[in-house]
Amino acid sequence: MVKSGLMPSPTQRHVLSALVQNVPGVLAHISGMLASRGFNIDSLAVGETENPVLSRMTFVVVGDNRVLEQVRKQLEKIVTVVKVIDVSASDYVERDLLLVKVQAPSGPRRAEIRELVDIFRGRIVDVGPEELMIEISGRENKVQAFIERVRPYGITELVRTGRVAMVRSDSSAAAVGQNSRVIA
């Protein structure tokens, strides 16, 4: 018997977008609140929005619908949170960004790496005598696949952003009214 009214669901990744007041301490407050209640943040990206007094936090939490509901309830209690949307309940676009330095001495290995970059629609953003710095953006699985393809060449350094996501324009009006969870 499910008391919350939600049907049991398998554990899944939920992409949440929180519009928050752009004031010091908001990130620490929200991430601390989630951690203190045992919710793990799988991915986190924060940045200013089109309105400089607001920031958008996009984060991924793992769990069933009960976990999602608990996260939502906890976020409702935070004064600096303006609105929260469960982006993953709608049709959305998501992206991760990767910068990676790969060992690439001049010659055939460098050419092979350049071909991989083209296949993955990436860009070489810096060229050194023995390394290339590559930028890849896309869905998490694309970024992960690229990492696995260049790993044999020797990754010197790697940095990734957290996931960012937006509900698609043609479905946003319907999503806000039907599928997504909005906290005002």
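Above is the first protein from milestone M3; the second protein from the same milestone is given next.
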Amino acid sequence: MSYAVVHMEKMKAYDLKGMQFHHQRERESRTNPDIDKERSYQNYDLVNEDPIDFNKRVKEIIESQKTGTRKTRKDAVLVNELLITSDREFFDRLDPDETRKFFEDSLTFFQERYGKQNIAYAVVHMDEKTPHMHMGVVPMRDGRLQSKNVFNRQELLWLQDKFPEHMQKMGFELERGEKGFDREHLSVQDFKRKTAKEQLEKEIASLEKKLSGKKNELLTLNEEISDEVRISAKREMKKVEVKTEERNLFGIPKKEIKKKPTGNILVPEKEFKQLVAAARDNKQLKSRMEKILRMDLAKENQKLASQLNGTLKGLKEKERENQRLNEENYSLRSQNHELRQEIHFLYQSTKEFLKERTESVRAFKNVFKDFVGKVKEKVIGSEFERLYKREKARERNTELER
């Protein structure tokens, strides 16, 4: 029986745009070679009819339920993404309507558990090797984000038990996966690679089992066939008249009777039947051997083993690529931090420069406001504008406190 798979990964603000590009196939993926673009039209979102802006949708969910005035932390977990799937054999047994029902029933289960209003998206991918659904759960509880409380260890263990039970009640032949929840620490891509590797290993084990069964079948048949057949055969002889070297009184060669083989073999009937049976068994053994050779299980096993080695090699390459990207990301973050500091310094320097060259505070504020407006026209959402808005907000709060 196939296993029910629920894999969880935490998503922060900077993850959402990339998830949007991948899930909605807005850009060509350079990290997932399993995507068959010719089948991407079969993908669908069970929550949203049209493509959405992930950041905007998640923000709407948070703001509609948030009770406090505190801003959401920049490093907060905004979405707990669940990957729902099973193995390829499970989906091979389902037609398209049954496959959709599987994901719809899964969605209903999670909506009842975490709130229908907290499901940002539920994207089903049909264009990869195994159908699967990416479901974005915004972990809102009691008016605030609570990822650690909503998806704690007890909750994940509960999911492992209850999700398969629910799907069994819906009529799907699934069982609980392995105990433990070490898999939630893998990225979705790494999890898919690990699942693909396990699928290959499973197929190889199945082929090896079939091959072993055929070998045992041949060995059994070979033992049933006798190694030797004893035949008490005799040559068939006939009497013939032959000339001799002796001659009679008239000079004519004398003749005598001799026995010569006819070319036939005389075999007792019982032993002849044994010989026929041995020939039949030998033909049967040859037929079985030819059938196994035509199946070419050994070659197929080698092919799958080669694919597995290729997958493992690909995993190592992806790990190296992931490490390189992490290092590059760290470098970019560091550069971004330095740029922010430079912009902050320029902001303060610009303020001081303009303040020294204006006649009054009012004139300075007007000139600086116009300057920030010009920057805003050139760069939307600029750091200059952000610093300016923050400064104005502090001024308003100070006035209110007075």
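Note on the second protein: The two ends are 71 Å apart (CA to CA).
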